[in-house]
Design brief:
Length: 293
């Protein structure tokens, strides 16, 4: 069993444990490479079927190709695809691109608040009708008590403080200093009633591991990660007003792997193109303490 096999086995184990231990969970799908690998692992864990709803928080500022990729794959794999949004902020134009608020406030509103209220069922949710490919109001307003997320410890400083099973309070707030120990693959899954749980099956994967696994498994990925001929590609995907591509001529997965192995990005953060990280002092901890992914 090689290193990728071990990572895969651990992640599949975490997914199955989460499904067994928690009553009503969902999986966040940001449409990026990490959460798509997580989705692939879920298909493996449950023998081709994903019994967990996929949730996407739609800010309405995603690159259009991301949304098309999401919907095409949801139809192809017959996923329970749900999205939520902060419709009030969007209707009133209270966003950074409209010049009304700063980037951090925009993330808190369109992502953190939308996520919290989508998970709780307090705001409207929309689910894809697999017969038509259109989204309709989701009649299931039951609260999601846990959410599976594709974060990695190496991706960003605050994420290195996470656990595989990470408790949040009733408001989804994160107490970094109150995380359960996880020694020798022993995980705490019995939490007090009302505790919201974030589950992180990819915690020990690296950026290189993700791309090597994508290559090995031939996982379909959005072409935004590849150079389209202008010497640039996205290394991390987000809202288009706050996400910049990196200089790169990698046109396929193999070339991205070689690029990462070469050390080209050794001293450049993976999320260096995400402007909100810089506005948050170079990290995401302020946002993540308040419920951000």
């Amino acid at each position: 069993m090689n290193h990728l096999d071990k990572l895969e086995a651990q992640s599949v184990h975490i997914l199955r444990e989460a499904y067994r231990e928690f009553k009503n969970i969902c999986m966040l799908w940001s449409i990026g490479k990490d959460s798509t690998v997580l989705l692939w692992l879920a298909r493996k864990a449950f023998f081709g079927h994903v019994p967990i709803p996929l949730v996407h928080i739609d800010t309405h500022y995603k690159i259009p190709e991301m949304i098309k990729y999401r919907d095409d794959l949801a139809l192809k794999w017959k996923l329970t695809m749900v999205y939520g949004e902060n419709s009030k902020a969007l209707t009133e134009g209270n966003t950074f691109p409209n010049g009304k608020i700063d980037r951090i406030s925009c993330c808190q509103s369109l992502k953190s608040e939308a996520l919290k209220n989508t998970l709780s069922g307090e705001w409207d949710r929309y689910v894809m009708d697999l017969k038509t490919g259109k989204y309709i109001p989701d009649t299931n307003r039951e609260k999601y008590t846990g959410v599976i997320v594709g974060v990695r410890a190496d991706e960003e400083g605050s994420r290195s403080k996470e656990r595989y099973f990470s408790p949040r309070d009733k408001e989804n707030d994160w107490d970094v200093g109150d995380q359960p120990p996880e020694f020798w693959n022993q995980f705490k899954t019995d939490f007090a009633p009302g505790t919201h749980i974030r589950i992180h099956p990819l915690l020990d994967w690296t950026e290189l591991n993700i791309w090597e696994y994508i290559e090995r498994e031939n996982i379909p990925i959005t072409s935004l990660y590849f150079d389209q001929g202008d010497g640039k590609r996205y290394r991390s995907l987000g809202c288009y007003p706050c996400t910049l591509p990196v200089d790169s001529t990698a046109k396929n997965v193999s070339e991205i792997i070689e690029e990462l192995k070469s050390g080209k990005f050794a001293n450049i953060a993976e999320r260096s193109g995400r402007a909100q990280d810089k506005d948050d002092g170079g990290g995401l901890e302020t946002l993540r303490r308040g419920g951000y992914m």
